Amino acid sequence: xxxxxxxxxxxxxxxxxxxxxxxxxxxxxxxxxxxxxxxxxxxxxxxxxxxxxxxxxxxxxxxxxxxxxxxxxxxxxxxxxxxxxxxxxxxxxxxxxxxxxxxxxxxxxxxxxxxxxxxxxxxxxxxxxxxxxxxxxxxxxxxxxxxxxxxxxxxxxxxxxxxxxxxxxxxxxxxxxxxxxxxxxxxxxxxxxxxxxxxxxxxxxxxxxxxxxxxxxxxxxxxxxxxxxxxxxxxxxxxxxxxxxxxxxxxxxxxxxxxxxxxxxxxxxxxxxxxxxxxxxxxxxxxxxxxxxxxxxxxxxxxxxxxxxxxxxxxxxxxxxxxxxxxxxxxxxxxxxxxxxxxxxxxxxxxxxxxxxxxxxxxxxxxxxxxxxxxxxxxxxxxxxxxxxxxxxxxxxxxxxxxxxxxxxxxxxxxxxxxxxxxxxxxxxxxxxxxxxxxxxxxxxxxxxxxxxxxxxxxxxxxxxxxxxxxxxxxxxxxxxxxxxxxxxxxxxxxxxxxxxxxxxxxxxxxxxxxxxxxxxxxxxxxxxxxxxxxxxxxxxxxxxxxxxxxxxxxxxxxxxxxxxxxxxxxxxxxxxxx
Length: 579
What we know:
Elements: E1 36-38, E2 44-46, H1 47-51, E3 55-58, H2 71-74, E4 82-85, E5 92-95, E6 104-105, H3 107-119, E7 136-138, E8 143-145, H4 147-155, E9 164-166, H5 167-173, E10 192-194, E11 199-201, H6 203-207, E12 215-217, H7 218-329, H8 332-337, H9 339-353, E13 370-380, E14 383-390, E15 400-402, E16 408-410, E17 415-420, E18 436-442, E19 449-450, E20 452-456, E21 461-466, E22 472-480, E23 483-484, E24 490-495, E25 505-506, H10 509-512, E26 546-547
Parallel strand pairs: 16-24
Antiparallel strand pairs: 1-2, 1-6, 3-4, 4-5, 7-8, 7-9, 10-11, 10-12, 13-14, 15-17, 17-21, 18-19, 18-22, 20-21, 22-23, 22-24, 25-26
Helix pairs in contact: 7-9
Protein backbone atom coordinates (compact mmCIF):
# COMPACT_ATOMS: atom_id res chain seq x y z
CA UNK A 1 0.00 0.00 0.00
CA UNK A 2 1.48 3.33 -1.04
CA UNK A 3 1.40 6.60 0.84
CA UNK A 4 -1.41 9.10 0.19
CA UNK A 5 -1.31 11.33 -2.82
CA UNK A 6 -0.44 14.99 -2.59
CA UNK A 7 -3.67 16.78 -1.54
CA UNK A 8 -4.94 19.42 -3.80
CA UNK A 9 -5.42 21.73 -0.83
CA UNK A 10 -2.13 23.58 -1.37
CA UNK A 11 -2.11 25.67 -4.52
CA UNK A 12 1.39 26.43 -5.81
CA UNK A 13 2.00 28.37 -8.96
CA UNK A 14 4.75 27.01 -11.16
CA UNK A 15 6.53 30.34 -11.22
CA UNK A 16 6.80 30.50 -7.41
CA UNK A 17 10.45 30.36 -6.44
CA UNK A 18 12.10 29.85 -3.10
CA UNK A 19 12.41 32.95 -1.01
CA UNK A 20 13.83 32.12 2.40
CA UNK A 21 13.31 28.50 3.51
CA UNK A 22 15.60 25.98 1.75
CA UNK A 23 13.63 23.05 3.21
CA UNK A 24 10.67 24.03 1.06
CA UNK A 25 12.65 24.21 -2.21
CA UNK A 26 13.43 21.40 -4.64
CA UNK A 27 17.13 21.40 -5.54
CA UNK A 28 16.38 20.34 -9.11
CA UNK A 29 13.76 22.87 -10.24
CA UNK A 30 14.59 25.48 -7.57
CA UNK A 31 10.87 25.94 -6.89
CA UNK A 32 8.64 25.08 -3.97
CA UNK A 33 8.05 21.35 -3.70
CA UNK A 34 5.23 19.88 -5.76
CA UNK A 35 4.31 16.37 -4.63
CA UNK A 36 7.62 15.81 -2.83
CA UNK A 37 8.92 12.23 -2.76
CA UNK A 38 11.73 10.74 -0.64
CA UNK A 39 14.45 8.79 -2.45
CA UNK A 40 16.08 5.82 -0.63
CA UNK A 41 19.07 8.11 0.13
CA UNK A 42 16.62 10.35 2.13
CA UNK A 43 16.82 13.29 -0.26
CA UNK A 44 13.53 14.85 -1.36
CA UNK A 45 12.59 16.07 -4.84
CA UNK A 46 9.44 16.88 -6.75
CA UNK A 47 7.66 13.91 -8.33
CA UNK A 48 8.04 15.39 -11.80
CA UNK A 49 11.74 16.11 -11.19
CA UNK A 50 12.33 12.46 -10.25
CA UNK A 51 10.42 11.25 -13.31
CA UNK A 52 12.65 13.37 -15.53
CA UNK A 53 15.88 11.92 -14.14
CA UNK A 54 17.87 9.96 -16.71
CA UNK A 55 17.92 6.23 -15.78
CA UNK A 56 21.39 5.21 -14.71
CA UNK A 57 20.79 1.48 -15.31
CA UNK A 58 18.01 -1.01 -15.65
CA UNK A 59 18.21 -4.34 -13.81
CA UNK A 60 17.94 -7.40 -16.08
CA UNK A 61 15.48 -10.15 -15.45
CA UNK A 62 16.67 -12.68 -12.95
CA UNK A 63 19.38 -10.29 -11.61
CA UNK A 64 19.80 -8.62 -8.25
CA UNK A 65 22.02 -5.79 -7.05
CA UNK A 66 23.68 -8.05 -4.50
CA UNK A 67 24.32 -10.91 -6.94
CA UNK A 68 22.47 -13.83 -8.52
CA UNK A 69 19.02 -14.57 -7.09
CA UNK A 70 17.31 -17.86 -6.54
CA UNK A 71 14.08 -19.09 -8.07
CA UNK A 72 12.02 -17.60 -5.24
CA UNK A 73 13.35 -14.18 -5.93
CA UNK A 74 13.04 -14.53 -9.66
CA UNK A 75 9.30 -13.96 -9.55
CA UNK A 76 9.70 -10.69 -7.75
CA UNK A 77 12.41 -9.58 -10.17
CA UNK A 78 10.33 -10.22 -13.27
CA UNK A 79 9.84 -6.52 -13.72
CA UNK A 80 13.08 -4.64 -14.38
CA UNK A 81 14.25 -2.16 -11.78
CA UNK A 82 15.19 1.39 -12.66
CA UNK A 83 18.26 2.96 -11.06
CA UNK A 84 18.83 6.71 -11.05
CA UNK A 85 21.50 8.97 -9.63
CA UNK A 86 20.45 11.25 -6.79
CA UNK A 87 20.92 14.86 -7.96
CA UNK A 88 22.09 15.82 -4.47
CA UNK A 89 24.50 13.08 -3.29
CA UNK A 90 25.09 11.32 -6.63
CA UNK A 91 24.18 7.95 -5.08
CA UNK A 92 22.71 5.13 -7.12
CA UNK A 93 19.13 4.57 -5.91
CA UNK A 94 16.52 2.09 -7.08
CA UNK A 95 13.01 3.23 -7.86
CA UNK A 96 10.06 1.01 -6.91
CA UNK A 97 8.54 -1.14 -9.67
CA UNK A 98 5.67 1.36 -9.85
CA UNK A 99 8.14 4.17 -10.49
CA UNK A 100 8.62 7.46 -8.63
CA UNK A 101 4.96 7.54 -7.61
CA UNK A 102 5.63 4.58 -5.34
CA UNK A 103 8.13 6.55 -3.26
CA UNK A 104 7.10 7.83 0.15
CA UNK A 105 5.66 11.32 0.38
CA UNK A 106 7.69 13.83 2.37
CA UNK A 107 5.00 15.31 4.66
CA UNK A 108 7.58 17.46 6.42
CA UNK A 109 8.37 19.09 3.08
CA UNK A 110 4.65 19.73 2.55
CA UNK A 111 4.50 21.45 5.93
CA UNK A 112 7.48 23.60 4.99
CA UNK A 113 5.88 24.49 1.66
CA UNK A 114 2.66 25.52 3.41
CA UNK A 115 4.51 27.60 6.00
CA UNK A 116 6.58 29.20 3.24
CA UNK A 117 3.38 30.05 1.38
CA UNK A 118 1.98 31.65 4.53
CA UNK A 119 5.18 33.57 5.15
CA UNK A 120 5.21 34.94 1.61
CA UNK A 121 2.19 37.13 2.45
CA UNK A 122 0.48 36.41 -0.86
CA UNK A 123 -3.33 35.91 -0.71
CA UNK A 124 -4.33 32.28 -0.21
CA UNK A 125 -6.94 30.84 -2.52
CA UNK A 126 -9.83 28.70 -1.33
CA UNK A 127 -9.24 25.04 -2.18
CA UNK A 128 -12.99 24.39 -2.59
CA UNK A 129 -14.33 27.31 -4.64
CA UNK A 130 -11.06 28.69 -6.03
CA UNK A 131 -11.74 32.22 -4.88
CA UNK A 132 -8.98 34.19 -3.16
CA UNK A 133 -9.24 35.33 0.45
CA UNK A 134 -8.95 32.02 2.31
CA UNK A 135 -8.62 32.69 6.03
CA UNK A 136 -9.14 29.26 7.62
CA UNK A 137 -7.72 25.78 7.24
CA UNK A 138 -9.29 22.39 8.06
CA UNK A 139 -6.70 20.27 9.87
CA UNK A 140 -8.45 17.02 8.93
CA UNK A 141 -9.14 17.74 5.26
CA UNK A 142 -5.99 19.83 4.88
CA UNK A 143 -7.75 22.44 2.76
CA UNK A 144 -7.81 26.24 2.86
CA UNK A 145 -11.29 27.71 3.18
CA UNK A 146 -12.79 31.08 2.46
CA UNK A 147 -15.46 32.40 4.85
CA UNK A 148 -18.37 31.04 2.77
CA UNK A 149 -16.83 27.57 2.37
CA UNK A 150 -15.84 27.57 6.03
CA UNK A 151 -19.52 28.02 7.04
CA UNK A 152 -20.57 25.29 4.61
CA UNK A 153 -17.82 23.01 5.99
CA UNK A 154 -19.17 23.48 9.50
CA UNK A 155 -22.78 22.77 8.45
CA UNK A 156 -22.03 19.37 6.86
CA UNK A 157 -22.46 16.47 9.26
CA UNK A 158 -19.38 14.61 8.03
CA UNK A 159 -17.01 17.59 8.47
CA UNK A 160 -18.75 19.47 11.27
CA UNK A 161 -16.39 18.02 13.91
CA UNK A 162 -13.18 18.77 12.02
CA UNK A 163 -10.88 21.22 13.85
CA UNK A 164 -10.48 24.52 12.02
CA UNK A 165 -7.57 26.95 12.50
CA UNK A 166 -7.06 30.45 11.25
CA UNK A 167 -4.24 30.89 8.77
CA UNK A 168 -2.90 33.87 10.72
CA UNK A 169 -2.56 31.68 13.82
CA UNK A 170 -0.69 29.04 11.82
CA UNK A 171 1.59 31.71 10.39
CA UNK A 172 2.45 33.14 13.82
CA UNK A 173 2.94 29.68 15.32
CA UNK A 174 5.75 28.82 12.87
CA UNK A 175 4.97 25.11 12.98
CA UNK A 176 2.25 23.15 11.24
CA UNK A 177 0.68 20.08 12.85
CA UNK A 178 -1.76 18.21 10.67
CA UNK A 179 -2.95 14.63 10.41
CA UNK A 180 -1.67 12.28 7.71
CA UNK A 181 -4.59 10.95 5.66
CA UNK A 182 -4.95 7.66 3.81
CA UNK A 183 -4.56 7.86 0.04
CA UNK A 184 -7.05 5.01 -0.46
CA UNK A 185 -9.74 6.40 1.82
CA UNK A 186 -9.77 10.24 1.76
CA UNK A 187 -10.63 11.76 5.08
CA UNK A 188 -9.40 8.72 7.00
CA UNK A 189 -6.39 9.37 9.21
CA UNK A 190 -3.59 6.81 9.44
CA UNK A 191 -4.06 5.71 13.07
CA UNK A 192 -3.08 2.03 12.82
CA UNK A 193 0.12 0.19 11.90
CA UNK A 194 0.11 -3.13 9.99
CA UNK A 195 3.10 -5.06 11.27
CA UNK A 196 3.24 -7.73 8.51
CA UNK A 197 3.10 -5.05 5.80
CA UNK A 198 5.19 -2.58 7.86
CA UNK A 199 2.80 0.26 6.84
CA UNK A 200 0.56 2.79 8.60
CA UNK A 201 -3.12 2.19 7.69
CA UNK A 202 -6.50 3.71 8.41
CA UNK A 203 -9.47 1.94 10.04
CA UNK A 204 -11.08 1.07 6.73
CA UNK A 205 -7.82 -0.38 5.36
CA UNK A 206 -7.48 -2.50 8.50
CA UNK A 207 -11.03 -3.78 8.10
CA UNK A 208 -10.71 -4.55 4.39
CA UNK A 209 -7.26 -4.82 2.86
CA UNK A 210 -5.49 -5.90 6.07
CA UNK A 211 -8.27 -7.84 7.74
CA UNK A 212 -6.10 -10.88 8.48
CA UNK A 213 -3.07 -8.84 9.48
CA UNK A 214 -2.06 -7.83 12.93
CA UNK A 215 -2.81 -4.12 13.12
CA UNK A 216 -2.28 -2.09 16.26
CA UNK A 217 -2.61 1.61 17.12
CA UNK A 218 0.29 3.77 16.12
CA UNK A 219 0.67 4.94 19.71
CA UNK A 220 1.61 1.39 20.73
CA UNK A 221 4.39 0.91 18.17
CA UNK A 222 5.74 4.43 17.79
CA UNK A 223 8.01 4.07 20.80
CA UNK A 224 9.52 0.82 19.54
CA UNK A 225 10.13 2.04 16.00
CA UNK A 226 11.01 5.55 17.12
CA UNK A 227 13.49 4.16 19.64
CA UNK A 228 15.06 2.06 16.92
CA UNK A 229 15.55 5.14 14.75
CA UNK A 230 16.68 7.14 17.75
CA UNK A 231 19.19 4.47 18.76
CA UNK A 232 20.69 4.36 15.29
CA UNK A 233 20.92 8.13 15.26
CA UNK A 234 22.14 8.61 18.83
CA UNK A 235 24.37 5.60 19.37
CA UNK A 236 25.84 5.05 15.94
CA UNK A 237 25.29 7.80 13.42
CA UNK A 238 25.58 10.90 15.60
CA UNK A 239 29.05 9.91 16.96
CA UNK A 240 30.00 8.86 13.44
CA UNK A 241 28.80 12.21 12.13
CA UNK A 242 30.82 14.04 14.78
CA UNK A 243 33.88 12.02 13.83
CA UNK A 244 33.29 12.77 10.16
CA UNK A 245 32.84 16.47 10.89
CA UNK A 246 36.02 16.51 12.99
CA UNK A 247 37.88 14.69 10.26
CA UNK A 248 36.39 17.05 7.68
CA UNK A 249 37.52 20.00 9.77
CA UNK A 250 41.01 18.49 9.91
CA UNK A 251 40.93 18.04 6.16
CA UNK A 252 39.87 21.65 5.70
CA UNK A 253 42.60 22.80 8.07
CA UNK A 254 45.02 20.59 6.17
CA UNK A 255 43.86 22.16 2.92
CA UNK A 256 44.46 25.62 4.36
CA UNK A 257 47.85 24.56 5.70
CA UNK A 258 48.63 22.97 2.33
CA UNK A 259 47.69 26.15 0.51
CA UNK A 260 49.75 28.25 2.90
CA UNK A 261 52.70 25.86 2.60
CA UNK A 262 52.42 25.85 -1.18
CA UNK A 263 52.23 29.65 -1.30
CA UNK A 264 55.20 29.97 1.06
CA UNK A 265 57.15 27.43 -0.97
CA UNK A 266 56.20 29.24 -4.17
CA UNK A 267 57.57 32.46 -2.65
CA UNK A 268 60.74 30.60 -1.72
CA UNK A 269 61.01 29.23 -5.25
CA UNK A 270 60.53 32.69 -6.74
CA UNK A 271 63.09 34.17 -4.32
CA UNK A 272 65.45 31.31 -5.15
CA UNK A 273 64.92 31.87 -8.86
CA UNK A 274 65.59 35.60 -8.49
CA UNK A 275 68.69 34.96 -6.41
CA UNK A 276 69.85 32.20 -8.72
CA UNK A 277 69.27 34.41 -11.75
CA UNK A 278 71.27 37.20 -10.09
CA UNK A 279 74.06 34.75 -9.23
CA UNK A 280 74.08 33.36 -12.76
CA UNK A 281 74.11 36.87 -14.22
CA UNK A 282 76.99 37.85 -11.93
CA UNK A 283 78.80 34.63 -12.87
CA UNK A 284 78.23 35.40 -16.55
CA UNK A 285 79.68 38.89 -16.14
CA UNK A 286 82.64 37.42 -14.27
CA UNK A 287 83.27 34.94 -17.08
CA UNK A 288 83.07 37.69 -19.66
CA UNK A 289 85.47 39.86 -17.67
CA UNK A 290 87.89 36.97 -17.36
CA UNK A 291 87.56 36.30 -21.07
CA UNK A 292 88.39 39.92 -21.82
CA UNK A 293 91.42 39.70 -19.50
CA UNK A 294 92.61 36.63 -21.37
CA UNK A 295 92.15 38.40 -24.69
CA UNK A 296 94.19 41.37 -23.53
CA UNK A 297 96.85 39.11 -22.03
CA UNK A 298 97.19 37.01 -25.15
CA UNK A 299 97.10 40.10 -27.35
CA UNK A 300 99.92 41.69 -25.33
CA UNK A 301 101.96 38.51 -25.67
CA UNK A 302 101.42 38.52 -29.41
CA UNK A 303 102.34 42.20 -29.55
CA UNK A 304 105.55 41.45 -27.66
CA UNK A 305 106.42 38.56 -29.96
CA UNK A 306 105.65 40.70 -32.97
CA UNK A 307 107.86 43.52 -31.70
CA UNK A 308 110.70 41.12 -30.91
CA UNK A 309 110.48 39.48 -34.32
CA UNK A 310 110.26 42.83 -36.07
CA UNK A 311 113.32 44.07 -34.21
CA UNK A 312 115.26 40.89 -34.97
CA UNK A 313 114.27 41.06 -38.64
CA UNK A 314 115.18 44.73 -38.76
CA UNK A 315 118.60 44.04 -37.22
CA UNK A 316 119.37 41.20 -39.63
CA UNK A 317 118.03 43.13 -42.62
CA UNK A 318 120.12 46.18 -41.78
CA UNK A 319 123.29 44.13 -41.23
CA UNK A 320 122.79 42.13 -44.44
CA UNK A 321 122.07 45.25 -46.47
CA UNK A 322 125.17 46.97 -45.11
CA UNK A 323 127.40 43.92 -45.68
CA UNK A 324 126.13 43.36 -49.22
CA UNK A 325 126.52 47.06 -50.08
CA UNK A 326 130.01 47.05 -48.57
CA UNK A 327 131.06 44.06 -50.62
CA UNK A 328 129.47 45.24 -53.84
CA UNK A 329 130.30 48.92 -53.71
CA UNK A 330 133.30 49.31 -51.42
CA UNK A 331 136.92 49.34 -52.43
CA UNK A 332 139.47 47.04 -50.91
CA UNK A 333 140.57 49.72 -48.47
CA UNK A 334 136.97 50.53 -47.53
CA UNK A 335 136.18 46.88 -46.95
CA UNK A 336 139.24 46.35 -44.82
CA UNK A 337 138.64 49.48 -42.78
CA UNK A 338 135.05 48.41 -41.95
CA UNK A 339 135.91 44.73 -41.61
CA UNK A 340 136.25 44.64 -37.84
CA UNK A 341 132.96 46.29 -36.93
CA UNK A 342 131.08 44.47 -39.66
CA UNK A 343 132.36 41.06 -38.57
CA UNK A 344 131.52 41.77 -34.93
CA UNK A 345 127.96 42.70 -35.88
CA UNK A 346 127.48 39.82 -38.27
CA UNK A 347 129.00 37.33 -35.78
CA UNK A 348 126.69 38.54 -33.05
CA UNK A 349 123.66 38.17 -35.29
CA UNK A 350 124.86 34.78 -36.44
CA UNK A 351 125.16 33.69 -32.81
CA UNK A 352 121.53 34.68 -32.26
CA UNK A 353 120.49 32.75 -35.33
CA UNK A 354 121.72 29.57 -33.68
CA UNK A 355 118.56 29.64 -31.53
CA UNK A 356 116.91 26.42 -32.72
CA UNK A 357 113.50 27.48 -31.49
CA UNK A 358 113.08 30.59 -33.53
CA UNK A 359 111.89 28.70 -36.60
CA UNK A 360 109.49 26.65 -34.48
CA UNK A 361 107.76 29.69 -33.04
CA UNK A 362 104.08 28.91 -32.36
CA UNK A 363 102.18 32.10 -31.59
CA UNK A 364 99.30 31.81 -29.14
CA UNK A 365 96.12 31.93 -31.24
CA UNK A 366 93.78 31.47 -28.26
CA UNK A 367 93.07 27.85 -29.12
CA UNK A 368 93.42 26.91 -25.46
CA UNK A 369 90.48 29.10 -24.49
CA UNK A 370 87.25 27.13 -24.28
CA UNK A 371 84.02 27.16 -22.29
CA UNK A 372 82.74 24.09 -20.43
CA UNK A 373 79.06 24.64 -19.61
CA UNK A 374 78.70 21.50 -17.50
CA UNK A 375 81.68 21.88 -15.17
CA UNK A 376 81.04 22.99 -11.58
CA UNK A 377 82.16 26.55 -10.92
CA UNK A 378 81.77 26.70 -7.14
CA UNK A 379 79.11 28.73 -5.33
CA UNK A 380 78.00 32.33 -5.24
CA UNK A 381 75.71 33.49 -2.45
CA UNK A 382 74.95 29.88 -1.58
CA UNK A 383 73.93 28.98 -5.13
CA UNK A 384 75.86 26.31 -7.03
CA UNK A 385 77.17 27.52 -10.36
CA UNK A 386 78.29 25.77 -13.52
CA UNK A 387 80.23 26.95 -16.51
CA UNK A 388 83.99 27.43 -16.55
CA UNK A 389 86.32 29.12 -19.03
CA UNK A 390 89.41 27.03 -19.49
CA UNK A 391 92.44 29.07 -20.43
CA UNK A 392 95.22 26.79 -19.31
CA UNK A 393 97.73 28.07 -21.82
CA UNK A 394 101.31 27.74 -20.77
CA UNK A 395 103.12 30.96 -19.97
CA UNK A 396 106.87 30.46 -20.61
CA UNK A 397 107.74 33.36 -18.32
CA UNK A 398 106.08 31.50 -15.40
CA UNK A 399 107.63 28.08 -16.11
CA UNK A 400 110.38 26.93 -13.75
CA UNK A 401 113.21 24.40 -13.91
CA UNK A 402 114.34 22.19 -11.07
CA UNK A 403 117.34 19.90 -10.59
CA UNK A 404 121.11 20.03 -10.20
CA UNK A 405 121.55 18.65 -13.70
CA UNK A 406 120.70 22.06 -15.11
CA UNK A 407 123.86 23.63 -13.62
CA UNK A 408 126.51 20.91 -13.49
CA UNK A 409 127.17 17.46 -14.90
CA UNK A 410 130.04 15.01 -15.40
CA UNK A 411 131.55 13.80 -18.59
CA UNK A 412 130.03 10.52 -19.72
CA UNK A 413 127.44 10.47 -16.91
CA UNK A 414 123.69 10.93 -17.35
CA UNK A 415 122.32 14.23 -16.13
CA UNK A 416 118.73 15.33 -15.78
CA UNK A 417 116.48 18.17 -14.63
CA UNK A 418 112.74 18.87 -14.52
CA UNK A 419 110.68 21.53 -16.27
CA UNK A 420 107.39 22.54 -14.57
CA UNK A 421 104.99 24.38 -16.89
CA UNK A 422 102.63 26.96 -15.43
CA UNK A 423 99.94 29.26 -16.74
CA UNK A 424 99.82 33.03 -16.58
CA UNK A 425 98.46 32.86 -13.02
CA UNK A 426 101.43 30.80 -11.91
CA UNK A 427 99.31 27.68 -11.43
CA UNK A 428 100.63 24.30 -12.62
CA UNK A 429 99.17 23.25 -15.94
CA UNK A 430 98.19 19.82 -14.55
CA UNK A 431 98.27 18.41 -18.08
CA UNK A 432 100.85 17.62 -20.72
CA UNK A 433 101.11 18.07 -24.45
CA UNK A 434 102.96 21.38 -24.56
CA UNK A 435 105.57 21.94 -27.24
CA UNK A 436 108.86 21.72 -25.27
CA UNK A 437 112.25 22.01 -26.98
CA UNK A 438 115.63 21.65 -25.20
CA UNK A 439 118.96 22.28 -26.91
CA UNK A 440 122.39 21.92 -25.23
CA UNK A 441 125.19 23.71 -27.15
CA UNK A 442 128.91 23.87 -26.35
CA UNK A 443 129.86 27.48 -25.81
CA UNK A 444 133.32 27.19 -27.38
CA UNK A 445 132.85 24.44 -29.96
CA UNK A 446 130.09 25.33 -32.39
CA UNK A 447 129.61 21.83 -33.72
CA UNK A 448 129.48 20.22 -30.26
CA UNK A 449 125.90 19.58 -29.14
CA UNK A 450 124.36 17.23 -26.63
CA UNK A 451 121.17 15.39 -27.51
CA UNK A 452 118.43 15.91 -24.91
CA UNK A 453 115.43 13.65 -24.31
CA UNK A 454 112.15 15.19 -23.03
CA UNK A 455 109.69 12.91 -21.21
CA UNK A 456 106.14 14.22 -20.78
CA UNK A 457 104.64 13.16 -17.43
CA UNK A 458 101.19 14.44 -18.53
CA UNK A 459 100.83 16.47 -15.34
CA UNK A 460 102.48 19.68 -16.49
CA UNK A 461 106.01 18.48 -15.72
CA UNK A 462 108.66 17.30 -18.17
CA UNK A 463 111.85 15.42 -17.31
CA UNK A 464 114.87 16.30 -19.45
CA UNK A 465 117.80 13.89 -19.55
CA UNK A 466 121.10 14.06 -21.43
CA UNK A 467 124.62 12.52 -21.45
CA UNK A 468 127.53 14.88 -22.28
CA UNK A 469 130.50 13.25 -23.97
CA UNK A 470 132.92 16.14 -23.60
CA UNK A 471 133.77 18.41 -20.70
CA UNK A 472 133.36 22.15 -20.94
CA UNK A 473 130.83 24.98 -20.61
CA UNK A 474 127.47 24.57 -22.34
CA UNK A 475 124.36 26.71 -22.96
CA UNK A 476 121.05 25.00 -22.21
CA UNK A 477 118.15 26.44 -24.22
CA UNK A 478 114.77 25.52 -22.66
CA UNK A 479 111.81 26.77 -24.67
CA UNK A 480 108.07 26.23 -24.47
CA UNK A 481 106.02 27.20 -27.50
CA UNK A 482 109.25 28.57 -29.00
CA UNK A 483 109.76 31.00 -26.11
CA UNK A 484 112.50 30.81 -23.50
CA UNK A 485 111.42 29.89 -20.01
CA UNK A 486 112.51 31.98 -17.07
CA UNK A 487 116.34 31.95 -16.83
CA UNK A 488 116.95 30.40 -20.23
CA UNK A 489 119.54 29.95 -21.64
CA UNK A 490 121.17 28.32 -18.62
CA UNK A 491 124.95 27.76 -18.13
CA UNK A 492 125.87 24.09 -17.70
CA UNK A 493 129.33 23.11 -16.47
CA UNK A 494 130.41 19.61 -17.51
CA UNK A 495 133.40 18.28 -15.58
CA UNK A 496 135.78 15.63 -16.75
CA UNK A 497 135.07 12.05 -15.90
CA UNK A 498 135.90 11.54 -12.20
CA UNK A 499 138.69 9.17 -11.14
CA UNK A 500 137.67 6.30 -8.96
CA UNK A 501 139.45 5.64 -5.70
CA UNK A 502 141.85 2.65 -5.77
CA UNK A 503 142.40 2.44 -2.03
CA UNK A 504 140.12 2.17 0.94
CA UNK A 505 138.47 4.69 3.20
CA UNK A 506 140.13 4.04 6.59
CA UNK A 507 141.11 5.64 9.87
CA UNK A 508 144.87 4.89 9.48
CA UNK A 509 147.15 2.36 7.73
CA UNK A 510 148.23 0.83 11.06
CA UNK A 511 144.66 -0.16 12.00
CA UNK A 512 143.53 -1.15 8.53
CA UNK A 513 146.60 -3.39 7.91
CA UNK A 514 146.64 -5.03 11.28
CA UNK A 515 149.91 -3.31 12.29
CA UNK A 516 151.95 -4.08 9.14
CA UNK A 517 155.05 -1.85 8.94
CA UNK A 518 155.14 -1.85 5.14
CA UNK A 519 151.58 -0.55 4.78
CA UNK A 520 151.55 2.91 3.19
CA UNK A 521 148.86 5.67 2.92
CA UNK A 522 148.29 8.57 0.61
CA UNK A 523 148.04 11.06 3.47
CA UNK A 524 151.18 12.85 4.79
CA UNK A 525 150.98 11.06 8.13
CA UNK A 526 154.01 9.18 9.58
CA UNK A 527 154.72 6.78 12.45
CA UNK A 528 157.92 6.08 14.41
CA UNK A 529 159.37 2.59 14.76
CA UNK A 530 159.89 1.86 11.12
CA UNK A 531 156.23 2.06 10.03
CA UNK A 532 155.81 3.49 6.53
CA UNK A 533 152.15 4.53 6.86
CA UNK A 534 150.06 6.72 9.16
CA UNK A 535 148.71 6.20 12.65
CA UNK A 536 146.34 7.89 15.03
CA UNK A 537 147.62 11.05 16.71
CA UNK A 538 150.93 10.92 14.88
CA UNK A 539 152.51 13.60 12.77
CA UNK A 540 150.71 14.42 9.51
CA UNK A 541 147.59 12.32 10.28
CA UNK A 542 144.47 14.19 8.98
CA UNK A 543 142.60 13.46 12.22
CA UNK A 544 139.60 11.88 10.42
CA UNK A 545 138.89 8.94 8.09
CA UNK A 546 140.44 9.35 4.64
CA UNK A 547 141.21 7.48 1.41
CA UNK A 548 144.40 5.48 1.48
CA UNK A 549 144.99 6.09 -2.25
CA UNK A 550 144.95 9.89 -2.25
CA UNK A 551 144.37 11.03 1.33
CA UNK A 552 141.03 12.72 0.52
CA UNK A 553 138.84 13.02 3.62
CA UNK A 554 135.54 13.07 1.61
CA UNK A 555 134.18 9.58 1.22
CA UNK A 556 132.12 10.49 -1.82
CA UNK A 557 134.74 12.31 -3.84
CA UNK A 558 136.93 12.07 -6.90
CA UNK A 559 140.38 10.58 -6.52
CA UNK A 560 142.99 13.34 -6.58
CA UNK A 561 145.42 13.49 -9.54
CA UNK A 562 148.75 11.70 -9.16
CA UNK A 563 150.58 15.02 -9.22
CA UNK A 564 149.26 15.91 -5.78
CA UNK A 565 149.99 12.54 -4.29
CA UNK A 566 153.10 11.87 -2.33
CA UNK A 567 155.88 10.27 -4.24
CA UNK A 568 155.31 6.70 -3.30
CA UNK A 569 155.69 3.60 -5.45
CA UNK A 570 152.47 2.74 -7.33
CA UNK A 571 151.45 -0.63 -5.90
CA UNK A 572 152.69 0.00 -2.38
CA UNK A 573 149.27 1.19 -1.13
CA UNK A 574 147.72 -1.46 1.04
CA UNK A 575 144.13 -2.32 0.00
CA UNK A 576 142.65 -2.75 3.44
CA UNK A 577 139.14 -3.53 4.49
CA UNK A 578 136.79 -0.80 5.68
CA UNK A 579 136.37 -0.52 9.44
